[in-house]
Amino acid sequence: MADFTARPRRSVLYMPGSNARALEKAKEIPADALILDLEDAVAPDAKEEARQQVCDAVKAGGYGKREIAIRVNALDTAWGKDDIAAAVAAGPDAILVPKINTPDDVTLAESQMAAAGAPETMQLWCMIETPLAMLNIKEIAAKTETSLRMNVWVMGTNDIAKELRCQHTPERMPMMTSLGLAMLAARAYGLVILDGVYNDIKDEDGFFAMCEQGRDLGMDGKTLIHPSQVGPCNKVFSPDEETVAFSRKVIEAFDQPENQGKGVLKVDGKMVEILHAEIARRVVNVADQIAELEKANG
Protein backbone atom coordinates (compact mmCIF):
# COMPACT_ATOMS: atom_id res chain seq x y z
CA MET A 1 0.00 0.00 0.00
CA ALA A 2 1.22 3.52 -0.80
CA ASP A 3 2.85 5.63 1.88
CA PHE A 4 0.31 8.46 2.08
CA THR A 5 2.44 10.37 4.59
CA ALA A 6 5.31 10.89 2.14
CA ARG A 7 4.08 13.89 0.15
CA PRO A 8 4.02 17.68 0.67
CA ARG A 9 1.04 19.11 2.51
CA ARG A 10 2.46 22.53 3.34
CA SER A 11 -0.66 24.45 2.34
CA VAL A 12 -4.11 22.88 2.54
CA LEU A 13 -6.80 25.31 1.41
CA TYR A 14 -10.48 25.09 2.33
CA MET A 15 -12.81 25.93 -0.56
CA PRO A 16 -16.57 26.38 0.06
CA GLY A 17 -18.52 23.67 -1.71
CA SER A 18 -21.44 25.98 -2.38
CA ASN A 19 -19.32 28.40 -4.43
CA ALA A 20 -18.89 27.11 -7.99
CA ARG A 21 -16.55 29.96 -8.90
CA ALA A 22 -14.26 29.11 -5.97
CA LEU A 23 -14.15 25.44 -6.99
CA GLU A 24 -13.03 26.47 -10.47
CA LYS A 25 -10.53 29.06 -9.21
CA ALA A 26 -8.93 26.42 -6.98
CA LYS A 27 -7.49 24.75 -10.08
CA GLU A 28 -5.02 27.63 -10.43
CA ILE A 29 -4.07 28.16 -6.78
CA PRO A 30 -0.60 26.79 -5.85
CA ALA A 31 -1.81 24.94 -2.75
CA ASP A 32 -0.47 21.45 -2.13
CA ALA A 33 -3.94 20.20 -1.23
CA LEU A 34 -7.55 21.38 -1.33
CA ILE A 35 -10.39 20.63 1.07
CA LEU A 36 -13.70 21.04 -0.76
CA ASP A 37 -16.00 21.79 2.13
CA LEU A 38 -19.55 20.57 2.70
CA GLU A 39 -19.57 21.35 6.42
CA ASP A 40 -18.89 24.72 8.08
CA ALA A 41 -18.71 26.74 4.86
CA VAL A 42 -22.18 25.63 3.69
CA ALA A 43 -25.54 26.77 5.08
CA PRO A 44 -28.04 24.02 5.99
CA ASP A 45 -30.39 24.84 3.13
CA ALA A 46 -27.53 24.61 0.62
CA LYS A 47 -26.05 21.30 1.78
CA GLU A 48 -27.45 19.04 -0.93
CA GLU A 49 -26.71 21.49 -3.74
CA ALA A 50 -23.14 21.90 -2.48
CA ARG A 51 -22.71 18.12 -2.30
CA GLN A 52 -23.71 17.74 -5.93
CA GLN A 53 -21.56 20.66 -7.00
CA VAL A 54 -18.44 19.40 -5.22
CA CYS A 55 -18.84 15.84 -6.45
CA ASP A 56 -19.33 17.02 -10.03
CA ALA A 57 -16.18 19.17 -9.75
CA VAL A 58 -14.10 16.27 -8.42
CA LYS A 59 -15.35 13.94 -11.14
CA ALA A 60 -14.53 16.53 -13.79
CA GLY A 61 -10.97 16.86 -12.52
CA GLY A 62 -8.54 19.53 -13.68
CA TYR A 63 -6.84 20.03 -10.31
CA GLY A 64 -3.46 18.76 -11.43
CA LYS A 65 -1.35 17.05 -8.78
CA ARG A 66 -3.10 18.85 -5.93
CA GLU A 67 -4.39 16.42 -3.34
CA ILE A 68 -8.17 16.63 -3.10
CA ALA A 69 -10.16 15.97 0.07
CA ILE A 70 -13.89 16.40 0.53
CA ARG A 71 -14.94 17.44 4.02
CA VAL A 72 -18.28 15.85 4.77
CA ASN A 73 -20.70 16.76 7.51
CA ALA A 74 -20.38 15.01 10.86
CA LEU A 75 -21.51 11.41 10.91
CA ASP A 76 -24.30 12.10 13.39
CA THR A 77 -25.92 14.79 11.22
CA ALA A 78 -28.69 14.37 8.68
CA TRP A 79 -26.20 14.75 5.82
CA GLY A 80 -23.15 12.78 6.98
CA LYS A 81 -23.88 9.31 5.60
CA ASP A 82 -25.14 10.59 2.24
CA ASP A 83 -22.15 12.92 2.01
CA ILE A 84 -19.76 10.00 2.39
CA ALA A 85 -21.57 7.89 -0.19
CA ALA A 86 -21.58 10.72 -2.74
CA ALA A 87 -18.00 11.73 -1.97
CA VAL A 88 -16.69 8.19 -2.37
CA ALA A 89 -18.43 7.92 -5.74
CA ALA A 90 -16.76 11.18 -6.86
CA GLY A 91 -13.31 9.69 -6.24
CA PRO A 92 -11.26 12.25 -4.28
CA ASP A 93 -7.94 11.37 -2.67
CA ALA A 94 -9.45 11.62 0.81
CA ILE A 95 -12.60 12.06 2.85
CA LEU A 96 -12.23 14.48 5.77
CA VAL A 97 -14.58 13.64 8.64
CA PRO A 98 -15.24 16.22 11.37
CA LYS A 99 -15.79 15.66 15.09
CA ILE A 100 -13.70 12.51 15.50
CA ASN A 101 -13.98 12.04 19.27
CA THR A 102 -13.28 8.35 19.87
CA PRO A 103 -11.70 5.34 18.15
CA ASP A 104 -15.22 4.16 17.39
CA ASP A 105 -15.75 7.26 15.24
CA VAL A 106 -12.78 6.20 13.10
CA THR A 107 -14.25 2.71 12.78
CA LEU A 108 -17.65 4.11 11.78
CA ALA A 109 -16.17 6.45 9.19
CA GLU A 110 -14.13 3.65 7.67
CA SER A 111 -17.09 1.28 7.61
CA GLN A 112 -19.25 3.85 5.84
CA MET A 113 -16.51 4.48 3.29
CA ALA A 114 -16.15 0.74 2.70
CA ALA A 115 -19.92 0.31 2.37
CA ALA A 116 -19.92 3.04 -0.27
CA GLY A 117 -17.28 1.14 -2.24
CA ALA A 118 -14.21 3.25 -1.45
CA PRO A 119 -10.99 1.76 -2.85
CA GLU A 120 -8.18 1.03 -0.40
CA THR A 121 -6.23 3.97 -1.78
CA MET A 122 -8.87 6.47 -0.63
CA GLN A 123 -7.67 8.05 2.60
CA LEU A 124 -9.52 9.02 5.76
CA TRP A 125 -8.57 12.41 7.19
CA CYS A 126 -9.84 13.24 10.68
CA MET A 127 -10.73 16.58 12.26
CA ILE A 128 -9.32 16.71 15.78
CA GLU A 129 -11.23 19.55 17.40
CA THR A 130 -12.88 18.71 20.72
CA PRO A 131 -11.89 18.20 24.37
CA LEU A 132 -13.17 14.63 24.15
CA ALA A 133 -10.85 13.95 21.23
CA MET A 134 -7.89 15.22 23.26
CA LEU A 135 -8.79 12.95 26.17
CA ASN A 136 -8.97 9.99 23.78
CA ILE A 137 -6.10 11.07 21.55
CA LYS A 138 -3.77 8.10 22.10
CA GLU A 139 -6.54 5.58 21.47
CA ILE A 140 -7.62 7.41 18.30
CA ALA A 141 -4.04 7.46 17.04
CA ALA A 142 -3.62 3.77 17.85
CA LYS A 143 -6.27 2.98 15.23
CA THR A 144 -3.41 3.17 12.73
CA GLU A 145 -2.49 -0.32 13.93
CA THR A 146 -5.61 -1.66 12.21
CA SER A 147 -6.75 1.19 9.97
CA LEU A 148 -5.90 1.05 6.27
CA ARG A 149 -7.06 4.60 5.63
CA MET A 150 -6.48 7.05 8.49
CA ASN A 151 -3.27 8.96 7.85
CA VAL A 152 -3.92 12.71 8.28
CA TRP A 153 -5.21 14.71 11.23
CA VAL A 154 -6.48 18.24 10.76
CA MET A 155 -6.50 20.43 13.85
CA GLY A 156 -9.80 22.30 14.16
CA THR A 157 -8.51 25.22 16.22
CA ASN A 158 -11.66 27.32 15.88
CA ASP A 159 -13.72 24.51 17.38
CA ILE A 160 -11.08 23.87 20.03
CA ALA A 161 -11.30 27.53 21.09
CA LYS A 162 -15.09 27.37 21.12
CA GLU A 163 -15.23 24.18 23.18
CA LEU A 164 -12.56 25.30 25.64
CA ARG A 165 -14.03 28.82 25.85
CA CYS A 166 -10.50 30.10 25.36
CA GLN A 167 -9.10 33.01 23.36
CA HIS A 168 -7.17 33.06 20.09
CA THR A 169 -4.04 34.72 21.45
CA PRO A 170 -0.97 35.32 19.23
CA GLU A 171 1.02 32.68 21.13
CA ARG A 172 -1.96 30.28 21.33
CA MET A 173 -1.07 29.36 24.90
CA PRO A 174 -4.73 28.57 25.81
CA MET A 175 -4.81 25.74 23.25
CA MET A 176 -1.18 24.65 23.39
CA THR A 177 -2.03 21.62 25.53
CA SER A 178 -4.45 20.42 22.84
CA LEU A 179 -1.95 21.00 20.05
CA GLY A 180 0.81 19.31 22.01
CA LEU A 181 -1.20 16.23 22.90
CA ALA A 182 -2.29 15.78 19.29
CA MET A 183 1.27 16.29 18.06
CA LEU A 184 2.66 13.68 20.46
CA ALA A 185 0.06 11.11 19.45
CA ALA A 186 0.47 11.81 15.74
CA ARG A 187 4.22 11.38 15.87
CA ALA A 188 3.98 8.27 18.06
CA TYR A 189 1.79 6.55 15.47
CA GLY A 190 3.16 7.95 12.21
CA LEU A 191 0.34 10.33 11.31
CA VAL A 192 0.52 13.54 9.32
CA ILE A 193 -0.76 16.49 11.35
CA LEU A 194 -1.93 19.83 9.92
CA ASP A 195 -2.24 23.04 11.90
CA GLY A 196 -5.53 24.93 12.15
CA VAL A 197 -6.57 28.06 10.29
CA TYR A 198 -5.73 31.71 10.89
CA ASN A 199 -8.88 33.82 10.77
CA ASP A 200 -7.61 37.37 10.17
CA ILE A 201 -6.91 37.41 6.45
CA LYS A 202 -5.60 41.00 6.51
CA ASP A 203 -3.07 40.37 9.30
CA GLU A 204 -0.19 39.14 7.15
CA ASP A 205 2.45 39.48 9.88
CA GLY A 206 0.34 37.59 12.40
CA PHE A 207 -0.37 34.84 9.89
CA PHE A 208 3.31 34.45 9.00
CA ALA A 209 4.25 34.26 12.68
CA MET A 210 1.65 31.56 13.31
CA CYS A 211 2.89 29.57 10.32
CA GLU A 212 6.37 29.72 11.83
CA GLN A 213 5.01 28.63 15.20
CA GLY A 214 3.23 25.67 13.62
CA ARG A 215 6.36 24.67 11.74
CA ASP A 216 8.47 24.98 14.89
CA LEU A 217 5.99 22.81 16.79
CA GLY A 218 6.48 20.12 14.14
CA MET A 219 3.29 20.47 12.10
CA ASP A 220 3.52 19.10 8.57
CA GLY A 221 1.58 22.02 7.12
CA LYS A 222 -1.32 24.36 7.75
CA THR A 223 -4.96 24.62 6.74
CA LEU A 224 -5.93 27.92 5.13
CA ILE A 225 -9.08 29.92 4.45
CA HIS A 226 -7.94 32.29 1.69
CA PRO A 227 -5.78 31.95 -1.44
CA SER A 228 -3.61 34.88 -0.32
CA GLN A 229 -2.32 32.71 2.53
CA VAL A 230 -0.96 29.98 0.26
CA GLY A 231 2.30 31.65 -0.84
CA PRO A 232 3.53 32.65 2.63
CA CYS A 233 2.52 29.25 4.03
CA ASN A 234 4.42 27.38 1.32
CA LYS A 235 7.49 29.48 2.06
CA VAL A 236 7.45 28.79 5.79
CA PHE A 237 6.87 25.06 5.47
CA SER A 238 9.50 24.54 2.75
CA PRO A 239 13.09 23.78 3.77
CA ASP A 240 15.34 26.67 2.69
CA GLU A 241 18.06 26.20 0.07
CA GLU A 242 20.90 26.39 2.62
CA THR A 243 19.34 23.67 4.78
CA VAL A 244 18.75 21.43 1.77
CA ALA A 245 22.31 21.91 0.50
CA PHE A 246 23.81 21.06 3.90
CA SER A 247 21.51 18.06 4.23
CA ARG A 248 22.78 16.71 0.92
CA LYS A 249 26.35 17.05 2.18
CA VAL A 250 25.47 15.18 5.38
CA ILE A 251 23.90 12.33 3.41
CA GLU A 252 26.85 12.18 1.05
CA ALA A 253 29.32 12.08 3.96
CA PHE A 254 27.57 9.21 5.74
CA ASP A 255 27.21 7.32 2.46
CA GLN A 256 30.96 7.33 1.80
CA PRO A 257 32.37 3.79 2.08
CA GLU A 258 35.07 4.89 4.50
CA ASN A 259 32.42 6.30 6.84
CA GLN A 260 30.24 3.21 7.04
CA GLY A 261 29.59 2.30 10.66
CA LYS A 262 30.68 5.67 12.01
CA GLY A 263 28.29 7.42 14.39
CA VAL A 264 29.75 10.92 14.25
CA LEU A 265 31.30 12.92 11.39
CA LYS A 266 32.43 16.47 10.76
CA VAL A 267 30.66 18.20 7.84
CA ASP A 268 31.55 21.80 6.99
CA GLY A 269 33.09 22.15 10.42
CA LYS A 270 29.97 20.87 12.23
CA MET A 271 29.71 17.64 14.19
CA VAL A 272 26.82 15.55 12.92
CA GLU A 273 25.49 12.24 14.20
CA ILE A 274 23.54 9.37 12.62
CA LEU A 275 20.27 10.99 13.77
CA HIS A 276 21.21 14.11 11.79
CA ALA A 277 21.64 11.95 8.72
CA GLU A 278 18.10 10.64 9.19
CA ILE A 279 16.81 14.21 9.50
CA ALA A 280 18.81 15.19 6.41
CA ARG A 281 17.26 12.40 4.34
CA ARG A 282 13.79 13.57 5.29
CA VAL A 283 14.63 17.20 4.44
CA VAL A 284 15.95 16.24 1.02
CA ASN A 285 13.01 13.95 0.34
CA VAL A 286 10.55 16.73 1.20
CA ALA A 287 12.47 19.27 -0.92
CA ASP A 288 12.54 16.93 -3.92
CA GLN A 289 8.82 16.20 -3.65
CA ILE A 290 7.99 19.91 -3.34
CA ALA A 291 10.00 20.62 -6.50
CA GLU A 292 8.21 17.82 -8.35
CA LEU A 293 4.77 18.97 -7.17
CA GLU A 294 5.38 22.62 -8.06
CA LYS A 295 6.63 21.63 -11.51
CA ALA A 296 3.56 19.48 -12.13
CA ASN A 297 1.14 22.21 -11.00
CA GLY A 298 2.92 24.90 -12.98
What is the CATH third-level topology name of the largest domain?
TIM Barrel
Give the strand line-up of the largest sheet: 1-2-3-4-5-6-7-8
Helix-strand makeup class: alpha/beta
Pattern of helices and strands:
EHEHEHEHEHHEHHEHEHHEEH
Fraction of helical residues:
40-55%
Overview of the molecule:
This protein is α/β, with parallel strands linked by helices and 298 residues long. The protein has two domains: 11-236, TIM Barrel (Alpha-Beta Barrel), CATH 3.20.20.60; 241-296, no CATH class. The chain contains twelve helices and ten strands. It has an eight-stranded parallel β-barrel with strand order 1-2-3-4-5-6-7-8, surrounded by six helices. A two-stranded antiparallel ribbon has the order 9-10. The longest helix is centred in the last third of the chain and has 23 residues, at 274-296. The mean pLDDT is 95.
Task: Give a nutshell description of this structure.
By secondary structure, this protein is of the alpha/beta class. Helices cover 45% and strands 16% of the residues. The protein folds into two domains: 11-236, Phosphoenolpyruvate-binding domains (TIM Barrel); 241-296, no CATH class.
